[in-house]
Structures are given as structure tokens and as C-alpha cells.
Amino acid sequence: MKKIFKILLVALSVIIALPVAFLLLMQLWFYASYPIYSFKEPVSFSGNYFYNPYAGVKADEWKKCIFHAHTKSWVGLTNGDSHHAEVVEVYKKLGFDVVSISNYMKVDTTDASQPSYIPSYEHGYGYGKTHQLVMGSDGHILWRDYFLIQNSLSQKQYTIDLLKNHCKVLALNHPDLRYGYTPADFKYLSNYDLMETFNGARSSLIYWDNAFTHGHTAWVTGNDDSHGVEKLADIQREVVYVNTTDIACDTILQQLTRGAAYIVSFPRDTNPTMAHKMNMAGKVSYLLSHQLKGDTLEVQWSREMAQITFISDSGKILSVTNNSDLARYVIQPENTYVRVALTDGELNYTLNPVVRSADGSMPMKQELGSVNVVKTILKYATIITALAVVIAASISWRRKERGKH
Questions:
Q1: Of 98, 171, 326, 359, which one has the greatest count of Cβ atoms within 10 A?
Q2: Is the pLDDT of residue 180 over 70?
Q3: Cα(176)–Cα(131) distance, rounded to whole angstroms?
């Protein structure tokens, strides 16, 4: 009996030790193998013209969308409490036109036959919560991530570059969650398309403004990041409204990357009913026009707003108009971008900015980060040398120990 118990104990130890050893070696490899980047200094938006992401929008073609929501996945290990059909049903009842599921490290293909299906997943499993939303995925899952905190711009940029090779649109999720990103990161990070500026109860406006201040077109997105529908308070907290004639995947992604979308932030109710949620959904008003008349930005809303605020570089408030459905701001030479935020007292609206441009077209994305070959080789050489020293010291110690006997 004791012999059988010992065999079972050894077998159990091996079963536990092997995957742990594999994961440890994988993480050691990830931390050792990422390249070192060098970053050029960013250039702010400039030019005598402005790119307007809402040029040509149609007031009756705003589609209600959610792009970051989870279902039960990975045998329930990833904190999803509801199945796909249950989640979609609740969102559809609330009038959502597009419901895109983005489970961790897995593309949900349940609705693959639907025109609005967007193959997506949320990348990242490290403690620091440095996550990205991979939209329009080609099916490839990137398993490289860093279990401990990512405190290196090189790690973050390398992950972004690897992910962008396998998707149509890349969003950086909840930058201010735990240790995901710092506001300073967005001076240099590039090669992404969207920033999840609003996520459930979190706001990353400082991060977003820092990106635009340094010349990055990081168009806005906002999502519930819900993990099922059992907690109704987590549903319809942040909504993306996209201006589009249809809800085909490519059309939706194209409109997001040109900036033709805005966010509606709903009140945080701790114990809402479905009827209350539906009532709040009916209170949403819409952007009618967002146009430039010479150097004046004019915004027309479908309903009187309690406050319409114009905001520019580093989040500076430029002008506030109270109790009106129309507001104007004369853009000053020092403004490299101007964005609009509105509130009716209950719902808050966040629009993408107009940005300076040489000819009125959308500025080309900056590519600031590139692999520094010399520093990367030195890093690898240092690691290899350190390993060689450890191995040599270990061999020498063993020989000495044998010599004593």
C-alpha cells in the first residue's frame, strides 16, 4: 500500500511539475528574447488644414456597438459567467446592432456566418493587465505575454507589432487598469489604431489626450468589458456609436479607423433592472453634424445639451457652451487638435478630435519605434554570457564536491 501511495505521489508531482516548468521556461524565454527598441521623438499634428473624422456622416446612420465583451470560456477559468447566446440576447434587447465577443486568447466563431461578425480576441494574461483587443483577426493567437509587470516600452511595442501583423484593427485596452500602461507610454507607442479610453468604470482620458498631443491618431473606443450578463450593472456602461450604412465587418472596422464614431457613457447603477436599462437606452441623443467652417469647429446635436466642452492639447479646456444643441469654437494656432465632450446631465458623450493636417486628409501614422540591432545583440550576448558563467560555476562546484569524496 505504501509503495502504491509513493508511486501516486510521484506521478502527481510530475503532473504538476511539468506544466509549471514549461510555463516558467516559456516566461524566461519571453523576457530574454524580446528585442530592444529605439524611439524617435514624436511630431505633433501640424498644417493649415484639419482632418475631420465626421466629415460626411449621416445623422440617421449611427449604429450601436459593443466590441469588448466576454462569455464563458476556457472551462470558466477566465471569469465569464454566461454563454454566448445569453450575452448576445441581452445586448440585442438593448438595441445593439453589433455585438462582438472578445474572449481571452481565443477567437469566438459562434456567429461567423453573420455579416456583422468580427473575429476578435483579447490578448494578454499577465498580472499587469497590459491588454490589447485584436479585431479582424486572421485566427493566429499570439501567446507571447509577460506574466510580471511590463515596465519596458520595448516589450509593449514589440507586442503591438506582433499583433498588428495578424489583424486589421488593433485597440489598446483599458490603459489605466492596474499596471497596463502609463500616460508617458503614449508619447512613443505607435502602430495601433484605437484606444479603449472608456472601460466599464474606468477612464483613460489622460492617456488618450497624451497620444493626440504627440501626434498619434488613436481613435476612441469604449466598452463594457462585461464578463457575462448575471451582473446587469456591467451591461451598457460604455457604448460605441459608429456611423455606417451597413454593419458588415470591414465597413465597421473602416469607420472606426477613420474616426467616425463616438462614445456614450451611461450612469453607474448598482442594481438596475432590464426595464431601467432599456429606458436609459431610449434617452440617447445623436450627433447631427460636426463641421469646420474656415477655422471654426461647429457641432450640432439632436437635443439640447447641458454642457458642450471643447478640449485641446494635454486635455486643456478651451470653451464651454451651456444649455444648447449647437456650439462653436474658433481654433487657435496653438491647437494641434480639438475634441468635443458633451453631457445632458445623465449621459456623457465623447467625440474624436479634428487634427491638424497639411492637406485636410488624415495624417499618416507615426512609426517611432524600431529594433536597435546593436543593443539587442548586446542584450542577447549578456544573457548568454551570464548563462555560461552560471553553468561553468556549477560544473566547477560539482567537480570540487566530487574531489572531496
A1: 171
A2: yes
A3: 11
**290, HSE (Cβ side, Cα atoms, 13 Å):** 28
Q: Provide CB contacts within 8 A for 82, sequence distance 6+.
A: 71, 72, 228, 229, 230
Report the distance separating Cα 345 and Cα 197, nearest Å. Answer: 20
Task: Provide the phi-psi class of 176: left if phi over 0, else alpha when psi is between -120 and 50, else beta.
Answer: alpha
Given CA atoms 89, 91, 94, 96 in this order, what sign does their dihedral have?
Answer: negative
Q: How is residue 247 written as a grid cell?
A: 454593419
pLDDT of 12 > 80? The answer is no
Q: Which three cell numbers stand for residue 211?
A: 497620444
Q: CB of 363 within 8 A of CB of 44?
A: no
Stretch 86-92: mean pLDDT: 97
- Residue 88: closest CA among 97, 80, 79: 97
Distances (CA, A) of 362 to 184, 290, 372: 24, 16, 29
**105: which residues sit within 8 A by CB, 6+ positions away?**
74, 121, 122, 123, 125, 141, 143
Kindly report, residue by residue over 98-147, the tens digit of the pLDDT.
999 999 999 999 999 999 999 999 999 999 999 999 999 999 999 999 99
List, for residues 245-285, the tens digit of each pLDDT value: 999 999 999 999 999 999 999 998 888 999 999 999 999 99
Residue type, 250: D
Say whether pTM exceeds 0.90.
yes
CA 75, distance to chain mean position in Å, is 25
Q: The C-alpha cell of 387 is what?
A: 548563462
CA separation for the pair 193, 170 (Å, rounded): 5
Q: At 125, which amino acid appears?
A: Y
The type of residue at 330 is: V
65, 94 contact by CB (below 8 A)? no
The pLDDT-based confidence of 405 (bands split at 50, 70, 90) is: low
